[in-house]
Each structure stands twice: as C-alpha cells, then as structure tokens.
Design goal:
It is built from four helices and twelve strands; from the N terminus they run βββαβαβαβββαββββ. It is mainly beta. It has two domains: about 150 residues, Double Stranded RNA Binding Domain; about 50 residues, no CATH class. It has a six-stranded antiparallel barrel with strand order 1-2-11-10-7-12. A four-stranded antiparallel sheet has the order 5-4-3-6. A two-stranded antiparallel ribbon has the order 8-9.
Length: about 220
Amino acid sequence: MNQKPGIIGRKIGNTQFFDASGDVHRVTVVAAGPVTVVGKRTQEKDGYVALILGMDDAKEKHLTKPLLGAFKKANVAPKRTVRELRCDDTFAGKFEVGAVMKLDEVFEVGQKVDAKGKTRGRGFTGVMRRWNFAGAGSNTHGTHEYRRHGGSIGTNMTPGRTLPNLKMGGHYGDETVSMLNLELVRMDVEKHLLFIEGGIPGAKNSVVTIRHGVKARPKKK
C-alpha cells in the first residue's frame, strides 16, 4: 500500500508555460487546498498511521449527524470532501488536527509524483471504442451490419458456450486510474496550486490525489 506523503486537490484543467530556459511545459493544474487535517489515525489506537484530510467548507445541513459529530469532536469546520491517506509516523507528526497543509511541506519542485483520479464516464460503448477493436475487416464482399462488431465469442460444439473473460461492449470509463512518475514542474504555495507535467485522470473539478512517486528513482548525488 502506498504510504508516501501526499495531498488531495481538484483538477482545474490544462495549460502550458515557458520556463527560464525557454522550454515549454504542458501541465495539468491542481488546486490542492487549502487542505485541513481533520483527523489522525495512530498505531496505538487504530493499528495504522494515517492523516484524514478535508477540503472545501460544507454547510451543516448537508452532513449526516455522525459526520457532523466527528467534525465537532475534532473542533474543525465541516468539509465537503474528506479523504484518508496512510503515511508514516514522521510525516504524520508534522501536522496537528486543525492545521492547514502547505504545499512546500509536502512537495518540492522537480520531484516525481503519482496522480490518482476517477476517469470520465463514457456510458455504454462498443468494442471498437472500449477495446480499440479493428472491426469486421472488409467493408465489402457481402459484409452487412457487422462492421463494428467484435467477431466470434465462442465455438459451436466444444465447449458449446461463450468463453469467459472476452472483451465486449459495456460500461466504459468512470474507474480509478493512477498515473505514475509525473514531474512536478511548478508550485504556487500561496494559491495552493500544483503544476504537473502531462495529463491526470478525471474531469475538470474532480477530486484527485497527489502523492510522492512510489516507483520514482532517487536522484544521483
């Protein structure tokens, strides 16, 4: 399980900018904050270490009584978005309940990060869009109403049934996807903005999780 330091945020969109050397960077902008620590998990009490992060203030009438009671017990303002991120004792010890996480306390420019989000839902799609099938092949020689079909899904006599795990049309998108080893090329601490090279899964204004790269190689000294 990924226990690298991280933060939650909202995907704003894509843009580009030129650095000091004149190179262009195509980036995804993430509004990571202000993010508040609304709770903590400890090894002694819960059996693991984690930080519970909250973002975007919520009205009390929009929360259930158990959630509202948890916020009042922690003495923090109610939040619309709450996520629990596991971490180690060293990172969790930097923050107290009610503290606002600063980006420079979590990340540094130039490091590799992992971005996790939920992809845009595309509804029910066929095999050509969902699995990149080529189609029925020839559009002539008698092909009729089978140009975008998937082809054979089983045999006639043996085993005489549809084979399992075949790629077919169905619900496409709306699934959790992680992009690994993306470079953090810019950071605006005052405005709580992260500029990450490349694309991040999810629609605009969707919640994403940014962590230190779990497979990132350490820099050579």
